[in-house]
Design goal:
52 residues; mainly alpha
């Protein structure tokens, strides 16, 4: 696994932990953003810049 996929996995784990430990409407949003971003990084495995 490369660094980007490991980062994605860490983001998913942190998002799940935040969701169950903190109770607030904003933490639900942050948790879902972390899980979504982590899933995207885990699947693609790269962060690309747009070609000009």
């Amino acid at each position: 696994m490369n660094k980007i996929r490991i980062t994605g996995l860490v983001l998913i784990i942190v998002g799940i932990i935040i969701q169950f430990t903190l109770v607030n409407d904003m933490t639900d949003f942050i948790s879902s953003a972390l899980i979504g971003g982590g899933a995207g990084l885990l699947i693609t495995g790269k962060v690309s810049k747009p070609a000009i």
